[in-house]
Give the backbone structure.
Amino acid sequence: MADPKKWVAEMATLLQPENIVWIEGGEEEHQQILDALVKAGIAIPLDRPKSYLFQSDPRDVARVEEKTFICSPTKEEAGPTNHWMAAEEMKKHLLQLFKGAMKGRTLYVIPYSMGPIDSPFSKLGIQLTDSLYVVAHMAIMTRVGREVLKKIEQKSFVPCVHSVGVPQGHPDFDSKWPCNPEKLIVAHFTKEREIWSFGSGYGGNALLGKKCLALRIASVLARDEGWLAEHMLIVGITNPHGEKRYFLGAFPSACGKTNLAMITPNIPGWKAETVGDDIAWIRPGKDGWLYAVNPEAGFFGVAPGTSEKSNPKAMATIATNTLFTNVALTGDKNVYWEGMDIEPKPPVTTWLGKPWDGKEKAAQPNARFTAPVAQSPHVDPAWEAEEGVPISGILFGGRRSDRIPLVTEAKSWAQGVLYAASISSEMTAAAAGTIGKLRHDPFAMLPFCGYNMGDYFQHWLSFQNLPHLPKIYLVNWFRKGADGKYLWPGFSDNTRVLKWIFERTQGKSEGINTPIGILPKKGEIDGAVDEILTYDPEGWKEEVKELKHYFTLFGHHFPQALSNELESLVTKI
Ligand code: TSX
Ligand code: MN
């Protein structure tokens, strides 16, 4: 039995807000919030139904990994891939930062649920925030309000404290996008299961249900409770016979995960429906299958690159009732971004609020759309099923111009876990670092695993005796030929890969057994050139050498079973 009112009162003593507003939920309240944002000059109403534009401070445009901390009891528990700080030290720092942080502002109390409110698997949180932008976004991305509060009173909740960190008296108090980048910090107390975030109003730093609760804190809960909290899309595929199978996909950023979650099949008779595009909570069912739920209620997608061509389903989803952040504004009060594939009506105003001269970026590369999953015309009918959807296969991929074939089926759960731990992606301009350089991103969870990643690999291995495990696939849409051109058309043509995978899970496609796994037989994937369906032993020997070196990072936490898999691979290739 939790006492949220008592906790809020305690926090209000620390935060010292001007007043306190409890979010009740519902359409009417949501519209009032948006009206208030317009009145304050923070939201720009668009000439699109129920849609608004927000422009952030240019210093506050993305997650900040350097300032994201896992405050587990020991540094070893956080592992080599997380920033760690001792919980007591962090708490002391936070209590100073948050003291009076909401002076002159309203404290909004958001009771929220990750997952359907009545599902026994959902996790509840209460986010305190002084950002109305955050309130509007949490209402789309999660389930919020009175009904959630009732559940919280019967059960428990993850306390989430958020402030943009600009109280009355600060020179930026009246800014349209107050933020405090110098003091930005996002802290996760994994033992206490608490989240504190200061200084940013953007995305994963500020919408605490998403990356902070549903991935970092949930991964720790999942470890302790025997399930998996993953950075994965969930898609349902139906074949021309009406048979349906569900698949998960994990990809590092800039690989088109949302596009795959919303794929439009281009083989007659095949259908795809979206359950989720970012996070999957996965548990074994009584029947020995793994079941997945999408804990989110909205899409928070990268706008640039999204077009009628690359992702028509996303374009249909955001046609109404959508919040946009850091996209450009057109002369007819519409939105525009790079790769949208339309001629914007002039004059165009950039995300920075300046006239666009066509030379600099119109939209910030990490500009976003926020829309309810439920309004997608292609949402899966089972997307809110309490028990989740049964999983037939899991795809892991990265952006790799060489070595990695179009699709490879792992021969065992352990080999699949090794492949998942091995994924890496060539960095695009959007990411920090050198363009083209490989960045390891095991399970696409590098920034999101709330504990030691070596132990996380072991946790994945612990599922290996389930009677109906999904098959695991390594995929790569980004292989290039000697001429530097992509060898695979990608996008809707990935349907052919999904079809092969679908039929493998039915025991239909044959494939060929190779040392690295099962590859499609010639002719099993229409139009695929031989080069992407073969593996080159020399390249793979190099790959294995690099992986061995990378995995030393995890020391004795790296599972012996995965070292064995890697060794056995070396002897065969
Ligand atoms: O999302 C992508 N997917 C998955 C789609 C379901 N993208 C975009 C990545 C950036 C977010 C892709 N880009 C994919 C892909 O499968 N493949 C590629 C590479 C590629 C780009 C352009 C062409 C072919 C391949 N061809 C032409 O532009 C004509
Ligand atoms: Mn993501």
